Amino acid sequence: MNKEDTILHIFHQNNGYAKTNEILDAGIHNHYLDLLVEKGKVIKIKRGLYKLSEIGVEDELEEVYRIVPDGVVCLFSAWNYYQLTDFVPPEYHIAIQKSRKVRLPDYPPIKLYYWSDKYWQIGITHVHIGNSKIPIYEKEKTVCDAIRFRNKVGQDMEKEVLKSYVREKNRNIDRLLHFARLLRVERRMKNHLNILL
To answer: What is the residue extent of each domain of the chain?
Structure first.
């Protein structure tokens, strides 16, 4: 196996992705990786992370997860995923711990939110997209985030998310109020529910 085939084999073992250090660990100089980029066989996502150009990602969220592996899909991206809004955000909204540092590529566009551990770790669940389990906040938690961040996202978005949630057949008001208590938006949530229910 020549060096190019060895590099491509590493990519195939990792579902079409590879890090520079994985290539170096195989005893291959990263110059050969640069040659594959020049030939168009490999695409550089960000410093140290590459993907095969022939491998299509089922959903860009899977690629975002690889770029920010400790991030959690939140706000506009979560509302869009749960179909609580018709608005398709131009960037992916990802919450990370305040202490984390992430270097982002130009594409895909990602907006990071730095949250304290107290709020970041509340209500994380996972959804299967492509070959990955993507961290995302539970639906009820992200509805509460619409209230919590209403000054940043706008009151129109806050109302749209709440109205969409209340119209759902499988809504769980007890779970919603549980997160509202944890996020300290219970009073405003109850005011909304009194009007909408």
So the answer is: 3-52, 60-196
Q: How many residues appear in the chain?
A: 197
Lowest mean pLDDT among 99-103, 155-159, 165-169: 99-103
Closest by CA to 2, choosing from 31, 32, 25, is 32
- The predicted-structure confidence for 44-98, as pLDDT tens digits, reads as follows 877 888 888 876 544 678 888 988 989 999 999 999 999 999 888 888 999 999 9
Q: What pTM, to 2 d.p., does this model score?
A: 0.73
Q: Write the DSSP string, 27-79.
A: T--HHHHHHHHHTTSEEEEETTEEEETT---SSHHHHHHHHSTT-EE-HHHHH
Contacts of 32 (CB under 8 A, 6+ apart): 3, 4, 7, 23
Residues contacting residue 193 through CB under 8 Å, at least 6 positions apart: 166, 173, 176
